[in-house]
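sanity check this record:
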Amino acid sequence: MGLTGAGAPAGAGPGSRGEHAGTVAAPLPAHRDPWEEQVLADPHLLADIAYAVGGPFHMMYPARVVENIHGFQRIFAAAGVSGAVFYGKKANKAACVARACATAGAGVDVSSTGELVAALAQGVRGADLLVTGPEKADELHWLAARHGCLIAVDSLGELKRLSALDIPVRILLRVLPAASASRFGMSADELGRAVTAAADHPSITLQGFSFHLSGYDPVPRAELAVQLLDRIQAARAQGHPATTISVGGGFGVDYVPAEHWSAFRDEANRRWFHSGKAFESYYPYSFPDPGPAMLAAILERDDLARRLRQTGTTLAVEPGRALLDRAGSTVFRVQGHKTRHEHGQPYRVLTVDGSSLSLSEQWFDSEYLPDPVLWPTAAGTPTPTVVGAATCLESDMLSWRRIPLPRAAETGDLLLYPNTAGYQMDSNESPFHELPIPPKVVLSQAPGGRFRWALDRS
């Protein structure tokens, strides 16, 4: 989650530029793909799924995941760089995503035995798995080594435990970036000792180095990758193959048009939110160079692509959210509604048949901002609307913002939150109140161009 950027933070109180901008929030319509337009235009599909499931559900369209993976692969090919794409599995547990990775030639980044086994079950080979995380459990080490996975080692102690397995293991050494306060990775001194220690253990093969940076700026990623090329060369001088640098994740997603995001940031104020709610920061929902375009910017910076080619080094990336862009949505049914007034203006309060635990941004003291779509789509009177959950918690709101829905929502309508596959569906879900966790519904094209659906196998 990132700050809104330059200017006053969204949610600023009295005195902000938007203080007198009214009580209805600026619209933030999400970008839509043709498959999403087709779903919304179908007169029966959403209603049929909702009837069969009997509660809220997540829709997944794995063909879009394949398309996103190919986007990163095309950038590597255009730059003439050897590249590897690993999907960060924590972003979404759906089995169909891991299957899409196997289909598209991408690996999967896993951090637990459960994630590792789930990826294998969907056809991802052990050699295409990258195992990350701090001080990994012995069982995870053993299983990863047995399947020939690439393991990102976080400490000297972890390296020692791996060498004690006496099983051939391929590793990356995770780097602690300079001036970083992160608890992950190794300092320059620790890296030097780890490279030397790895040379002393015939079972350890040092494949290279990895790092992760917060934020979405391509410049520091390129700069650190260039610096690590010197470490690659030094490791090779000590007899290691050292073929790979992983720059981690943090590839931005462009959720909404730039002009809408700019208007929101300029004008947002407490009057736009139920009960005067305020947030300090938001994910940057408009991103100028998302996903593959950000990879291109990294490769262009500091002549990185040429240096990778000259040294025969593979650049690995570990996107999670960016590989799920426009690959899924979350659907709730309206259970009821009421009218409230603030600042002398009426707005509608909806209660839907689920929880904000299925829209995880709300649990990081922030708001998921792309506008939900009211279905069936029909003309009506624009109605400012907030959305609450079917729980007894005052704070359990899916949308605090007074969203300008195109008509008044009624009981039985469906509310579709777009582009939720990246972290929103899985990060915080819980059967609170013994409400069932929404299932994932997988869409695929049937003969004749219509959609058919099935429950995900996760």
Summary: The longest strand covers residues 328-342. The chain has twelve helices and 17 strands. The first helix runs from residue 34 to 41.
